[in-house]
Task: structure prediction
Amino acid sequence: MTRIAIVHFKSHRYITMKKIFLLLVVILPYLGKAQPAGYYLTANGLNGEPLRIALKSIIRPHTALSYSPGLWNAYHTTDVKPSGKVWDVYSDIPGGTPAYEYTIGTNQCSGSSPSAENGCYNREHTWPQSKFSSSAPMQTDLFIVYPADYYVNSHRGDLPYGVVATASQTFTNGSKIGINTYAGAPASECFEPIDSFKGDLARNYFYVSTCYRDDSATFSSWEMATHVNLNPWVVQMLLEWHHNDPVSKKEIDRNNAVYALQGNRNPFIDHPEYADCIWGSGGCGTNNKVPDQSSLATVSLFPNPVSDKINIVLPVVAPSFPLSLRIFNLNGIEVYHLEAENLSGQNLSISVSGWSKGMYFLQVIMDKKIITQKVLVN
Result:
């Protein structure tokens, strides 16, 4: 049975022309598991430390933002919900109703510290800034620094992440502070985030340990790591978090938005299996392969240029796979979105009536492979 969900709208997500053209050279933003063609090719067939080294070379060097206003401005694209509210890792409840939300820009911290939650949001170094050199690029790396409630952030301070059995303090979204009871961890105070953010933070730590592998001397040793190398109990805990809280659309969108600003990506969001390839018990070897984007037949478009309706002939893939199709204009605004199943080889007809004249980009994902085509509306 064919199931089709179509959303046809104009989103208000906006990226500057300069940034969008940078992305369009390789691939459009905000698409599930999208990365530039060939981005991870040098990691093919590797596992363990050689894979970590290869990934480090792929994601470094990258553009370093300023602490202010760079990070504040970045959050307008990396950590904002469609409602204009902030994704806050310490107060939000994905899929639920948080006790409060912050409006992007309006509620950022600027004065004295709040005496309770719901005061303002600031910039949280999930890998504590006290544990590494405060020089660029790690101080302003968006894969390290997230917007977070100031009050909760200040209470977390430089506590390690961990598992709390009996909380000495619990925050409104369920995050808590208490003695770390995870096997092998020091029996000292730790901060436990809610389950919905544990995978995000695990992939954040895998990124830091990889991206700054050659900068290890600039990192201090602490409960979670020996310099930049994750301690054994941490590896085990983070792999559990990574598996139990898989990559979300929110993370995928953030990864693409960060790439637009920093020019690098978090490999453990694009390829979650890399975490197991490096830190897990099973090797990857020749099974570690980047999906082949050339093996799908080209999507056929006609007429192109188009003024009324464009016909899209999808490739034949057997067996049929779920399909994602999106169309963006040159400002990075999504104007068409379709998620469906069992459309292999079918012909779709899409009205462009009312669309502004100009260039658009069609993207199709089928069987984890990506096809990109230009569409000209006249």
Summary: The first strand starts at residue 4 and ends at 7. Confidence is low (pLDDT under 50) at residues 1-33, 290-297. The radius of gyration is 22 Å.
